[in-house]
Amino acid sequence: MNAPLRYVSTRGASPAASLGEAIAAGLAPDGGLYVPESLPRLDPAAFDPHGTLADTAATLLAPFFAGDTLAGDLPAICAEALDFATPLRPLASPPGAHVLELFHGPTAAFKDVGARFLAACLRRLPRRDPRPLTILVATSGDTGAAVAAAFHRQPGVRVVILYPDGRVSPRQAHQLGCFGDNVRALRVAGRFDDCQRMVKAALNDAAVQAAVPLSSANSISLGRLLPQMSYYAHATLQWRRVHGGPLNLIVPTGNLGNALAALWVRELGLPIGEVQLACNANATLPDYFAGDAYRPREAVATLANAMDVGAPSNFERLRWTFPDEHALRQRLHAHSVADADIRQVVARHAREHGELLCPHTATAMHRLERLCVGGDTAAWTVVATAHPAKFESVVEPLAGHPVPVPAALAAMLARPASADPLAASDEALHAWLLARSAAAA
Ligand SMILES: *Cc1c(COP(=O)(O)O)cnc(C)c1O
Q1: CA gap 339, 359 in Å, rounded
Q2: Are the CB atoms for 78 and 61 separated by under 8 Å?
Q3: What is the pLDDT of residue 128?
Q4: pTM over 0.85
């Protein structure tokens, strides 16, 4: 058995932690993000070619879990969390193009993968504190529902969701507010970046932590990032078996958690070829990859709202993975897609191919179309991150017909929903958490 992999902070000023400790903590004590001391190398031949997504995940993640208290549970965690398909389907056009559908989980977005895996890990981690653990989650729309669904009615856990009021789709807002029981939704008078900052501040505040034991469930948590590698590993193995060669990906990108998982899978030695990042009008990453200095900024609202991020939190992990900035800019490309182009792509795909795309997936589809227009003949796979039914207010007018709603989403929409208003300040969240814990005590 290999020595256990240790986890360190991207900022280098926290002690090394075990996987279980890193997952329980969320953010490292120095404010950085946990990363493995080094990325292991995997042999593609180690995978069962006919295994399920959960089987692939258990093989892929074994070196990350080796020696940890969670190691023995890894196959069960994978089976419990990854119990839905992530199919790789051919697209009507261009020839060779595929779509990797990541939206067949309970809340109809890829965030279900990370949220369910994190929940399955946290359920098994020993806690010395008998008080309930509060999972704080900032969401630009999809994360909150996935985390709420993953922890709903789990004893000993409360979930508090912060979302930017008026900046999520009506169905997303309904989903966030429909759980009840141990889940509370806060609609924040601000942007997603405010929600994210407030969560980070609370997690770093010793006084708040002393009163209300907190953990995070944002894509900053390793427990979400690691399992997202599974569907890429699974798809590359399938691709190689059927088509040969590496899988080239276009990933709709906001906080950079999904795309980073694909890049890590490539670093592990599995056959991923090129990775392109498709962003919305929030151009922090496209500007950086065009050669500008990294300049985080306030997010602007777009149709692809789960990608309305001006300060992508996983950028620190990207820079840790690729310390040579020049090489990084050579290897990775990012493009910004305007709302007008998102609308055009959604309408055209519905009209010409009968394919319905969510606005996020449409950014990646737009990038594919630009590549084809530019004469690129590689076989690309567009990553589909949400079901179009979550964004019916955008998609239906463009498609000209209703979008069929998956059963799990329909059940959530049939329940009543509510959310508390909150000012966009760190103090307001602290006060809310303290008042609520006092009321519950
Ligand atoms: C969260 C989300 C994204 C962006 O993923 P990141 O990991 O933040 O880059 C894209 N599309 C949808 C539908 C999402 O919910």
Answers
A1: 9
A2: yes
A3: 84
A4: yes
**Over 80: is that where the pLDDT of 219 sits?**
no
Contact predicate 398/350, CB 8 Å: yes
Element at 112 (helix H, strand E) = helix 111-124
C-beta 105 within 6 A of ligand 1: no
Mutate to test the pocket of ligand 1, among 276, 385, 390, 394 (most ligand atoms within 8 A of CB): 385
CB neighbours of 359 closer than 8 A, spacing ≥ 6?
A: 302, 303, 304, 305, 342, 346, 391, 394, 395
Count of C-beta atoms within a 10 Å radius of residue 393:
11
Do 101 and 84 form a contact (C-beta atoms < 8 A)? no
Dig out the tokens for 101 from the structure: 């559908």
DSSP lists the bridge partners of residue 250 as 276, 382
Span between the terminal Cα atoms of the chain, in Å: 45
CB of 305 closer than 6 A to ligand 1? no
306 within 8 A of 386, measured Cβ to Cβ: yes
The matching CATH number, chosen from 3.20.20.150, 3.30.420.40, 3.40.50.1100, 3.40.190.10, for 84-109+223-404 is: 3.40.50.1100
Give the Cα separation of 368 and 342 in Å (integer).
Answer: 12
* Cα-Cα-Cα-Cα dihedral sign, residues 40, 41, 47, 49: positive
Helix (H) or strand (E) holding 326: helix 325-331
Whether the Cβ atoms of residue 135 and residue 158 lie closer than 8 Å to each other:
yes
* 430 Cβ inside 6 Å of ligand 1: no
Number of neighbours of residue 123 by Cβ within 10 angstroms: 16
| Interacting residues of 33 by C-beta distance below 8 A, sequence separation 6+ | 9, 10, 27, 220, 313, 314, 316, 317
User: What is the predicted pLDDT for the residue at 9?
Assistant: 97
Which pLDDT score, from 0 to 100, does residue 314 have?
Answer: 95
Q: What is the pLDDT of residues 286-311, one digit of tens each?
A: 999 999 999 999 889 999 999 999 99
Is residue 306 lining ligand 1, measured as CB closer than 6 Å? yes
Which of 53, 124, 97 has its CA nearest to residue 372? 97
- Where do we find the tokens 């995940």? 57
**pLDDT above 80 (res 1):** no
Give me ligand 1 centre to Cα 437, in Å: 31
Question: What does the DSSP 8-state code read for residue 292?
Answer: P
Q: Is the CB of 142 under 6 A from ligand 1?
A: yes
283: amino acid identity, one letter: A
Listed by start position, the domains of the chain span 84-109+223-404
